[in-house]
Write a structure and sequence with these properties.
Bound molecules: nicotinamide-adenine-dinucleotide, uridine-5'-diphosphate-glucuronic acid
Strand order of the largest sheet: 3-2-1-4-5-6
Structural class: alpha/beta
Radius of gyration: 24 Å
Order of helices and strands: EHEHHEHEHEHEHEHEHHHHEHEHEEHEHE
Strand content: 5-15%
Number of strands: 14
Helix content: 25-40%
Number of helices: 16
Largest sheet: 6 strands, parallel
Amino acid sequence: MDKEIEVRNICCIGAGYVGGPTMAMIAKKCPHIKVNVVDVDENRIAAWNSNDLAKLPVFEPGLEEIIASQRNINLFFSNDIDNAIKNADMVFICVNTPTKTKGLGAGYACDLKYVELCARRVSRNAHGHTVVVEKSTLPVRTAKTIKEILSSANISKDKSKINKSFSILSNPEFLAEGTAINDLEKPDRVLIGGDEVFAINALRKIYLNWVHEDKILSTNLWSSELSKLSANAFLASRISSINSLSALCEKTGADIKEVSLAIGTDSRIGSKFLKAGPGFGGSCFKKDILNLIYICRHFGLIEVANYWEKVIEINEWQKNRISQLIVRKLFGTITDKKILILGYSYKANTNDTRESPAKNIINDLLVEGAEITIHDPQVREEKIIKDLGEPSNNQNESSFNKWIYSKNLDDSFDNVDAVIILTEWDLYKNLNWESIYKKVRKPAWIFDTRLVVNKELAIKAGFRFWQLGGSHND
Ligand code: NAD
Ligand code: UGA
């Protein structure tokens, strides 16, 4: 088809961590385009429409301002999916693509049921020519499935209904949570995969409203789909590399912060993504690598699959070794010891807890019988209950679920035996350890898995101190 499309109306299916912020940015930069973000989840849409901006379902620095300026101007959130599709020139599919939990490929393959449902709905409701954009992260060659579903729209007995056609593009999202607005506003690159130039140009034209043309890359569909999985696998492998070395530092007297600095100043290596920590979390790294492994196995590339599997294995090992080490340092038993956890989200500046290493570490400590207090500046108690189950703090019960949620950080230190920092929120970086030491039960430990505590100040205050990848850990 040799034509030009002017996009005036966008529908985004999926109002999550990607759909919400991404569409907010398009609405801000393209006042001439009406953007409808739709979702099956009524509560989520109600939260996006909340007058109280603190209740938006996604916490992301800078997001509230954009929602305040664009919402109900050219950015709309609703559950009316069919109408939004009907009116759209371009539909973004931005739904979740979790790992399959049962059936063929369970534990590895990506569950495409939500994507497929979207494609069927688009195929039913679209009018005229519609550009369908894969924004969700998808296995390579998913566009083929979507194309097949969309093309079935024209197989109708009623000839008068055959008035629709589709182009399909892959436009994976590279934003990271916590910095999403900045990442969207100043992306390193925008990737558009497709085989129809006019459709690629229609999407490119949208991004050109704020992204320099040199940063907009076009590839074929399969390269685009695979690049997204590959980028996440590469990033995660850097974290597993540095985390594996953090353990070696602890054995040898080297310090992981110094090692990161020393290797990161090599311009070929680069300084980003070299922070050792309790293991990578977030909804995507693990699921995307599992998916990559599944695809490699499918094509008989067993060595390649095994290579990537190691990245996940080291990540699981890092979480386990931290909880085991904490128990050992606290004299081998933590039953009824009071432990304060600082940070529950998988990284700072997000309220997202998916795959947070905090969950695994806390669960291990609960099983050992510890009494856990959890503080996080953005994660709400209801979310933690969903992960850990209802707390049961009856002192007489030998229950494994002795945790409480702390609303006030200052009050959380009373009589604790250990403080464990699991998320690098700014407010944990400059705590007054001297005054905190007066409140804790002695001997008291600090376990710093995010390298944010000043070791000298903590030790001077009286604490026993362990820092991930540190040289002085005993
Ligand atoms: P999310 O779970 O926050 O949001 C997905 C939304 O889609 C949910 O609100 C859900 O109700 C909705 N949904 C599911 N099926 C639907 C359907 N059939 N019709 C309408 N709505 C439906 O997920 P997310 O974090 O926004 O991720 C979405 C995709 O983007 C995933 O493929 C993910 O891998 C990818 N991605 C995520 C990030 C990130 O930082 N979270 C970054 C880049 C890419
Ligand atoms: C990641 C990628 O960075 C994004 O490019 C991608 O779009 C996104 O996944 C996705 O596809 O979902 P995100 O998971 O939001 O983004 O956050 P990251 O900053 O990548 O952090 C992921 C995890 O790695 C966090 O648990 C973080 O604490 C950890 N991490 C990160 C480290 O332990 N060390 C580092 O140096 C960097």
